[in-house]
Design brief:
Layout: H1 7-16, H2 20-51, E1 62-63, H3 68-76, E2 93-95, E3 100-102, H4 104-113, E4 120-122, E5 128-129, H5 130-138, H6 141-150, H7 155-159, H8 166-172, H9 178-182, H10 186-204, H11 211-214
Helix pairs in contact: 2-3, 5-10
């Protein structure tokens, strides 16, 4: 296709070679893409509205609640329909440090870890800072789950760790504590540090243009070699 063609002209060229079913699918894809772009534009406006406000006495610009268009994007992100730790549907709490969504029960586990390990917020009830909103939009359950899997910190991997014997192993790692243990690893510390650095770069880059544009910012790769339990 010609480099100087408009999007509309490009679509017309594509339609010539498509069957009726394929053309209908193309129209559906175009409509879905347009909805995503419209939603991203609304989310960017929400973010810029708060960014451009005069700073309050405390110096932190906040949203009274998670902004509506940003929330729609957050809920639509891969893996965000279920709690990142237990898999329960429609999670309403957030592990902000990791950009991940949690159910009420798992949010309690995260609170017990302390804010230095996991900062917990309600998606529907709490105030949100600009940085925290962007941390959620730039994170996601799928991304965190993939990171844990690569570093052998998935629930399955942790349950397979062998102690002196099966009885000892059961006392060390079990279903009730496996989730908490992985957030206290060096790998988890690395992840939340890199998330914070990345979000700072996104804030500094100006108006929010979505994850794809954010990924083009210069940043270290989310990888780490230390996943041993501390």
């Amino acid at each position: 296709l010609g480099k100087n063609m408009t999007p509309a002209a490009t679509l017309e060229v594509l339609r010539v070679s498509l069957s009726t079913d394929e053309e209908e699918q193309l129209d559906d894809d175009v409509e879905e893409c347009q909805l995503e772009l419209d939603l991203l534009e609304l989310a960017s406006r929400e973010i810029e509205q708060v960014r451009n406000q005069p700073p309050p006495l405390g110096g932190i610009r906040t949203f009274q609640k998670f902004p509506r268009a940003c929330l729609a994007i957050l809920k639509n992100m891969e893996g965000n329909q279920r709690c990142v730790d237990c898999g329960d549907r429609d999670p309403q709490w957030a592990a902000v440090s990791y950009g991940a969504l949690l159910c009420l029960n798992c949010s309690g586990h995260h609170r017990s870890l302390g804010v230095q390990v996991s900062c917990v917020r309600s998606v529907l009830m709490d105030e949100w800072s600009l940085e925290h909103v962007l941390n959620m939009l730039e994170g996601g359950n799928a991304q965190l789950t993939d990171f844990f899997s690569r570093h052998h910190l998935s629930e399955e991997a942790l349950m397979k760790r062998k102690g002196a014997d099966e009885a000892t192993q059961a006392k060390v790692i079990n279903k009730s504590n496996v989730t908490r243990l992985r957030y206290k690893t060096k790998a988890a510390l690395f992840y939340r540090q890199q998330m914070a650095l990345h979000t700072a770069r996104v804030v500094k880059a100006g108006p929010y243009r979505g994850r794809e544009m954010s990924r083009r910012l210069k940043q270290p790769r989310l990888d780490h070699r230390h996943s041993n339990l501390e």
